[in-house]
Structure formats: C-alpha cells, structure tokens
Amino acid sequence: MNILVLGAGAIGAYLGGRLLEVGQNVSFFVREKRAAQLTNEGLKIYSPEGNFESREVSIYTSPDNVRNIDLVILAVKGYHLNQVIPQVQTIVQQTGAFVLPLLNGMEHMERLQQAIGKERVIGGFASIIATLNEQGHVEHTSGSSTFKFGILHEQQIEICEQLEGLRTLVKTKLVREENILKSMWKKYIFITAFSGVTSAMQLPSGFIASTKATFAVAKRVIREMTMLAGQEGIFLTDQEVETVTKTLLGFKKEATSSMHQDLRKGLPIEVEHLHGGALRLAGKHHVDVPVIETLYGILKPYENGRP
User: Fold this and answer.
1) pLDDT at residue 141, as a whole number
2) Which neighbouring-strand residues pair with 123?
C-alpha cells in the first residue's frame, strides 16, 4: 500500500513515522518550509511508545507530481481545510486514492465528500497529545496514541482491510470501528469540551478536575454537544456520555489540549472548526448551546494567533 500523509504536523508526522517504521511506503505532502525542515532534520519522534528517526523522507510540495498513491492520510488543522481541498482533489483525480481525514470536528466530512465523492472519504480520527518542537520533531506527551477508522461506503472495504492488517505491527493503536461516525462524534464532544475549557482558562487539564465550577462547565459542554449529536441522528447512551465525561479526569494534571498548546505559542487555533462548527449545527437545528457560544466568544480573538 502506497500512503501519502498530507500535512506533517505532530499527528501526521507521528502516524506517518509509525507506518514508515514498519516498512510501509510512506511519503509526505507539505509546504516548502516544512519540506526544508524535514530535509534538514529528518523525521524524529520522541514517544513513550518508542522513539523513531528516519533521515530518508520522501516529500512532495506540488500535487501535480503525486502519482501511484492508494491512501491519503489528511492530517491538517481545520483552518487549513479550504487551502488543501483543491490539492486533495488533484491528487485523487490523478491517483484514485481514498482519503482518511484525521481532523477534529465533523464539518470537514461533508466538505470533502462534496469535493471528491462520498465513496472516497473514509471515516476516522486521532486520539493523541503531541506537538512539534522548534526543530520540527514530534514530542508525544500522552501515554499512548490511538487512530480509529471505518468504512462509510462499500468501495472502502478493501483499503480498510489493508490498513487493519497493519494493527499488530505499528507502535500505536490502529483500530477499525464498525460505527465510525458515532466514534467521531464522541471525539468531537470530548475535544470541544477539553480544548475549549483548557484554552479558555489557559491552564492544563488538572484544573478541570480540581475545580468544581470548571468541571461543571466542561460537563455542560458535553451535554450541549451530545444534544447536537442527537439532532444529527447520533444517539449516545447515558453510559457513553459518562465515559466521555470521565475521560476529562483521566489525564495527567499537567496534560493539556493541542488548542491550548497552540494558544500559548501564539499560533492559530481551531475554534472556528470546533466551536464555530457546533454553533452552525445549533443554528441548523434551531437549538441553543449557551456554554459553547460563550467559549467561542472568549476564544475567537485568538483564531489567527495571538492578537
């Protein structure tokens, strides 16, 4: 299987590196600046799941040069989606590849399906806390990592079976889900609460658990997001909601969200893709999500980096 990782931030570089590590034919599609960094520094991963380094990294910077790809792993931030959709369209037209997006949220799925066809877009997401250091190396700070995927169209069965065949080889949890849309919604519910609250209070996750009022805010976000999921036809049981809530308490006290990390660095944040997306869904269904709306208002000035 020939795999192209589009976007070599922390998530793309991590999964791409793990696939390279077990001998998969992996290349990266990146911008010129990141291409130079990967050429000079190589791909390096520092992780509790095992360190990895490769000096031989295949890189593309123009979609016109991409050929012979079976799977595109789309690992960009939500605010880069508009920019990369034309590139994804060109690559899919030239190669017939399937696309596995690892973005947070849900809005990107419809956008990609409209751009390249429903049969080409596989469901999926990543669960990992990682960032790039100044050298562009991946620093994986959570104890483990999970990448989930699942078919949304019968034409995707074979490629998903090939990907599933790698799960016993790679040093990450590669999980095929039967109901991938429900799993994606669980992640969206969680990350909207976790990223929103840690970023708004500008403190790590330990302060969610240790401050009763803050934990109540996070639980309200989870309830509002669960209601939106139901409006979209995805229904969670009380136990599933409780599991999402307990996940907020399971991190090390110093752990934090990628949005909070980006906020601290003065980088753009995904508030429009996550919280803005939730507000658009609320508007679509004529329901109110006051806590999400408040977090959105607090974080919106940081959307394009430190004001």
Assistant:
1) 87
2) 150
Is the CB of residue 157 less than 8 Å from the CB of residue 95? no
DSSP 182-238: HHHHHHHHHHHHHHHHHHHHTS-THHHHH-HHHHHHHHHHHHHHHHHHHHTT----H
Summarised one tens digit per residue, pLDDT across range 220-261 is: 999 999 999 999 999 999 999 999 999 988 888 888 898 999
pLDDT score recorded for residue 56: 86
Q: Residue 67 domain-assigned?
A: yes
Number of domains in the chain: 2
Q: Is 173 marked active-site?
A: no
Give the domain CATH number at 254.
1.10.1040.10
Any idea what the Cα angle at residue 6 is, between residues 31 and 89, rounded to 5°? 100
Encoded tokens for 136: 């562009």
* C-beta of residue 138 within 8 angstroms of C-beta of residue 38: no
- Is 147 within 8 Å of 120 (Cβ atoms)? no
- Which of 187, 252, 253, 265 is flagged as catalytic? 187
User: Please, what is the end-to-end C-alpha distance for the chain in angstroms?
Assistant: 44
Residue type, 136: G
Q: Which residues of 180-206 are buried (b: 16+ CB within 10 A; e: fewer)?
A: bbbbbbbbbbbbbbbbbbbbbeebbbb
pTM reported for the whole predicted model? 0.93
Cα gap 12→28, rounded to integer Å: 9
Query: What is d(CA 159, CA 144) in angstroms, rounded to the nearest whole number?
Result: 25
Residue ranges for the chain with pLDDT beneath 70: none
Query: How far apart are alpha carbons 176 and 124 in whole angstroms?
Result: 9
For 115-141, what is each residue's pLDDT tens digit? 999 999 999 999 998 889 999 999 998
Tokens 């805010």, residue located:
217
Domain residue limits at 8: 2-178
Q: Are residues 159 and 209 in the same domain?
A: no
